[in-house]
Design a protein that fits this description.
178 residues; two-stranded antiparallel ribbon; 20% helix
Length: 178
């Protein structure tokens, strides 16, 4: 059975985006001589991407080539009228718990939960998330959208790996004990 993996960056003070959703602060950390902070490894391990509507809009707004070609992508939203502008991308409005359970059972590769915060909260609150890889960007942005919104269910996680880069970025990998 595949796993749901959250791979996400946050600021040192715990935010995944500025209050308006802006991600410009992410580019403040230069590339690492040690590699791409695990991004390629993650991309090779997944077959499916799940993201929220706001995350999708931000990625499409970059105006770049779709980075997830070859990966089936699901955009979780209540708006069935959104315009999909990327290949192999579907709107997901149905019962998310049953959909994700079925997807995990039939997928050969892992599933990347990309964000945003409310979707992450839903996955945690419903015991759907298996692994979290949190990249800590060594920058304080002061205010923004938190990685874990208020009232996220209290859960236990086990630290599986710490990877430190010369740029000051740290990847923390947590797994959900079963």
């Amino acid at each position: 059975m595949s796993k749901i993996v959250l791979y996400i960056a946050q600021s040192l003070d715990g935010f995944i985006a500025k209050p308006d959703g802006n991600l410009d602060w992410l580019t403040s950390t230069p590339p690492s001589e040690q590699g791409d902070y695990g991004y390629t490894e993650l991309l090779n391990s997944i077959g499916t991407v799940i993201m929220g509507r706001k995350t999708y809009d931000i990625i499409i707004g970059f105006g770049e080539e779709w980075a997830y070609s070859g990966k089936e992508t699901f955009v979780v939203t209540n708006d069935t009228n959104i315009e999909i502008k990327s290949p192999e991308t579907h709107i997901l409005t149905e019962d998310l718990i049953n959909f994700v359970s079925g997807l995990k059972a039939k997928s050969e590769k892992d599933i990347w939960l990309m964000g945003g915060g409310q979707l992450i909260k839903f996955f945690i609150d419903n015991n759907l998330l298996d692994t979290m890889i949190i990249s800590i960007i060594p920058k304080i942005i002061g205010n923004g959208i938190p990685l874990f919104p208020d009232h996220t269910l209290e859960t236990e996680w086990k630290l599986e790996n710490v990877q430190q880069f010369e740029t000051g970025l740290v990847n923390l990998t947590y797994i959900k004990p079963r």
